[in-house]
Write a structure and sequence with these properties.
Blueprint (H helix, E strand, L loop, with lengths): L4 E3 L2 E3 L6 E6 L4 E7 L3 H19 L3 H17 L1 H12 L3 H23 L6 E2 L7 E9 L2 E5 L7 H13 L2 E5 L9 H10 L6 E3 L4 H8 L6 E5 L2 H14 L3 E4 L5 E4 L5 H13 L11 E5 H16 L19 H17 L2 E4 L3 E2 L5 E2 L2 E4 L6 H4 L6 E7 L2 H9 L3 E2 L1 E5 L3 H10 L4 E4 L14 E2 L2 E2 L4 H6 L2 E9 L2
Parallel strand pairs: 7-8, 7-10, 8-9, 10-11, 12-13, 12-20, 13-18, 17-18, 20-21
Antiparallel strand pairs: 1-2, 3-4, 5-6, 6-24, 11-23, 14-17, 15-16, 19-22
Length: about 475
C-alpha cells in the first residue's frame, strides 16, 4: 500500500505537489507517506472510467454480482490486515474495527443479490390511452465520483462503491487524506478479481484533489460524505454542472429517555451513541433529552459509566474507546472544552484532553446545557454529550426537532405505543427504539434538513446510481 493511486487498472505514484502523512493517532506520529494525485491524474482516472463505461454497463447482472461477491470474499481473506490497519490509522478498538469490516463485507454481498434482480426491474407500464405500449428501463447513471470521509473507511466506500458497480456505473474513488490506506485494498482486490481496467479508479489527495474531482465535467454524478462546509462546495460544483449529487452530511442528534425506561439499559444505549468511534460519527446522539422523573437516577449512573470507560491505544491495551483520529479533530474538540468553560457549563465528567502522547480526550458529560449553547447546537464530532431535562412528550419532540440537522434519533421507553408515536414525529432519517445504533444494509441511510440529500443502503442506495428511461411505442 505504498503506491498511492489505482488508475486504469495500474498502480501509479502520485504526481501532485502535496505529501500525505498517514498518522497513528494513539502515538500522534506518522507511519507512512503518500504523494497526492495531480489534477492531470484525476483527469486520467475520469477518462479511464469513461472509457470503461460502455463495456461495463453492458455486462450481465450475473457478471456484476460475481465481482461483488468476489469483493466480499477478498475483504474477508484480508481480515486481520485490514482490522489492524483500521486500529492503527483510525484509532478504533478491535471490536469496532471488526464491525466495520463485517459491514463492508455484508454491503458487497447484499448488492450482489440486488444486481441479480435487476433484469426483473425492467417492466411494462400500463397506459390508459389505447394504441401505445410503454416499458421502463433502468440504466446506470454513468461515471460517478465518490468522495469518502476518514471516520469509517472501508464502510462508507463500500456503501457507495457496491451499489454503483451493481448498477453498472464506473467510478473514481477519492479517500480521505487522513485515512488513505484502507481503501487501497479495493484496488488490490480489483487486480485479484480481474475487474476490467477503468471500472474502479482510486486517487488520493487533500482538498485540491477533491476539488479537481468534484468540479470535473467528465462525471455524471458525485456522491459525497463529510462535513457540511465541504458538502456545500460540492453542491455548488454540482449546480454548475447541472448533475445529480448525493450528500451525507452532519448531525446533532438526540436520544430521548422517558421516565419509564430501565436506567441501566438507557445508560448502555447513551454511552454507545456518543462514545462509539470516539464520538466521531455524523449519527452520534450527542444531545441527551431525559425526562424529569428519571434524570436524578440516570445522570449519576451515566457519569460513572463514562468515568469507567477504558480509553487507550487499540494496539497496546484493552480499550473501550480509542483516540481521536487526527490532530485537527483533537484540537477542535479541545476548543469546545474551552467554549464550555467560557459558557460556564456544568461538567459532570471529562471536559479535558488526556496527556498520553496521542490524540486522546476524555468521555464528557455536561448537564443542564442551555438551548443557546454552542455545544448544544454545533456538531462537535467527539465523545461530548450535552444533557437537558424535559417534562412532557411534546416538549421532548419539539426540542429534538429544534435543529438544523435531521439525521438520526434514539427513543428509550417501555411504552411501545409512545415509542412508535415519537419516532413518527421526529424529523430525521433513521430512528432507533430501545437499541444501540445498529445499521443494517437492507435499511436506508440519510437525513433531512442540513443532514444531506438522498439515501444510501437498501434499494434506495442502488436507485441513486440508476437512471430511469421510458420507451413508448405506437402500435398504429
Amino acid at each position: 500500500m505504498t503506491t498511492s493511486h489505482y488508475i486504469a487498472g495500474r498502480w501509479v505514484d502520485g504526481q501532485g505537489s502535496e505529501c500525505i502523512s498517514v498518522n497513528d493517532p494513539a502515538l500522534g506520529q506518522p507511519f507512512a507517506e503518500l504523494m497526492a494525485a495531480s489534477a492531470e491524474q484525476v483527469d486520467q482516472a475520469v477518462a479511464a472510467a469513461r472509457a470503461a463505461l460502455p463495456a461495463w454497463k453492458c455486462t450481465s447482472a450475473g457478471e456484476r454480482a460475481a465481482y461483488l461477491r468476489g469483493f466480499a470474499e477478498q475483504l474477508g481473506q484480508r481480515r486481520e490486515a485490514l482490522v489492524t490497519l483500521q486500529m492503527r490509522n483510525n484509532g478504533k478498538p478491535r471490536h469496532e474495527a471488526e464491525v466495520d469490516l463485517d459491514d463492508a463485507i455484508a454491503t458487497f454481498g447484499y448488492y450482489a443479490e440486488l444486481a441479480e434482480q435487476l433484469p426483473g426491474q425492467n417492466r411494462d407500464v400500463p397506459l390508459a390511452a389505447p394504441g401505445f405500449t410503454a416499458r421502463t428501463r433502468l440504466e446506470p447513471v454513468g461515471v460517478v465520483g465518490l468522495i469518502v470521509p476518514w471516520n469509517f473507511p472501508l464502510v462508507t466506500s463500500a456503501w457507495k462503491l457496491a451499489p454503483a458497480l451493481a448498477a453498472g456505473c464506473t467510478v473514481v474513488l477519492k479517500p480521505s487524506e487522513v485515512t488513505p490506506l484502507c481503501e487501497l485494498a479495493y484496488g488490490q482486490i480489483a487486480d485479484t478479481l480481474g475487474l476490467p481496467a477503468g471500472v474502479l479508479n482510486i486517487v488520493n489527495g487533500k482538498a485540491e484533489t477533491g476539488a479537481a474531482l468534484s468540479n470535473h465535467n467528465g462525471l455524471d454524478k458525485l456522491s459525497f460524505t463529510g462535513s457540511n462546509n465541504v458538502g456545500s462546495q460540492v453542491m455548488r460544483s454540482a449546480a454548475a454542472q447541472c448533475r445529480p449529487v448525493t450528500l451525507e452530511l452532519g448531525g446533532k442528534s438526540a436520544i430521548l429517555v422517558f421516565d419509564d425506561c430501565d436506567v441501566d439499559a438507557a445508560v448502555q444505549w447513551i454511552v454507545a451513541g456518543i462514545c462509539w468511534n470516539a464520538g466521531q460519527m455524523c449519527s452520534a446522539t450527542s444531545r441527551l433529552l431525559v425526562q424529569d422523573g428519571i434524570a436524578d437516577a440516570l445522570l449519576p449512573r451515566l457519569q460513572a459509566a463514562l468515568e469507567n470507560l477504558r480509553v487507550g491505544s487499540p494496539l497496546s491495551e484493552e480499550a473501550d474507546m480509542g483516540p481521536l483520529t487526527s490532530q485537527a479533530q483533537w484540537l477542535r474538540v479541545a476548543g469546545y472544552f474551552a467554549t464550555a468553560r467560557e459558557e460556564g457549563l456544568q461538567c459532570l465528567v471529562g471536559g479535558k484532553v488526556l496527556d498520553r502522547g496521542g490524540w486522546f480526550v476524555s468521555p464528557t458529560l455536561y448537564a443542564d446545557v442551555p438551548e443557546g449553547s454552542r455545544l448544544w447546537n454545533e456538531e462537535i464530532f467527539g465523545p461530548v454529550l450535552c444533557a437537558r431535562r424535559f417534562a412532557s412528550e411534546q416538549q421532548a419532540i419539539a426540542e429534538a426537532n429544534d435543529s438544523r440537522f435531521g439525521l438520526v434519533a434514539t427513543v428509550c421507553t417501555t411504552d411501545l405505543a409512545r415509542a412508535e408515536r415519537v419516532a413518527d414525529a421526529l424529523e430525521v432519517g433513521h430512528v432507533w427504539i430501545n437499541s444501540v445504533q445498529a445499521v443494517f444494509v437492507e435499511t436506508s441511510w440519510g437525513g433531512t434538513k442540513g443532514s444531506g440529500i438522498g439515501r444510501e443502503l437498501g434499494p434506495w442506495g442502488l436507485s441513486g446510481y440508476q437512471s430511469v428511461k421510458h420507451v413508448t411505442r405506437c402500435l398504429g
